[in-house]
Amino acid sequence: MDLNFSVFQEPRGVMRILHLIFSISAFAAISGFSGDVNFKCENTTSPDYTFVYDYPFSILLDKHDLNPSGNATVCHPTVTIIGDFSSDAKFFVATGVLSMLYALGIIFVYVKLDQLYKSNNHLPLVDFILTVIFAVLWLSSSAAWANGLSGLKHATSPEAIQWSGIVESCKQCLTYTSSFSTLNISVVLGFLNFFLWASDLWFVYKETAWFQGNQGVNTAGV
């Protein structure tokens, strides 16, 4: 079996490894995330309530009674949290998964089919065009997810949570929201992926007939 591992000594091979690693890291950070909002109300007979949400972040908590076991004479606060950020999240994850699959596929081509890649003018052109597409996808999906994450933070913030059933007999109800650090990292990884895919364009372009044709014309002119 003729395998060409020397490609990993070239920038285009090294970049594909980075694409693979950071694509997985980006979509794993968001798809594996689980957050929660904890509600603690005094003067109720029920324990604290924790609302858990995760990917794809289509959130719906409709008038949940925080004191369902209490009788009619005690406080019955209800909360509502509404927010659908699934389209932005799915776009981001889909970009990550497709990038991972393409990185794996093109690494196989580089290693196993390197001679065909260099002798066939169409393969480098397809590689270059797809790299452009993935760079654009990372930029747009990262921007979309950054906007979606901002909306998610707002929807789960104490200021945006809708309360009802609060009467004088109710003491203060406190809200605690989990950290968004992992999701913040996912946004950073998204824009980092854009930078990596965009940076690879020059190295892939050098393998195309467009670049080699220009080099031939310049050499002939000299």
UniProtKB/TrEMBL annotation:
Predominant location: membrane
Keyword Transmembrane on entry: yes
Localization: Membrane
Keywords assigned: Glycoprotein, Membrane, Transmembrane, Transmembrane helix
GO cellular component: synaptic vesicle membrane
Membrane topology note: Multi-pass membrane protein
TM stretches of this protein: 17-35, 91-111, 123-146, 185-205
Start and end residues of each MARVEL domain: 7-209
Pfam families according to UniProt: MARVEL
Keyword Glycoprotein: yes
Family in the record: Belongs to the synaptophysin/synaptobrevin family.
Record's protein name: MARVEL domain-containing protein
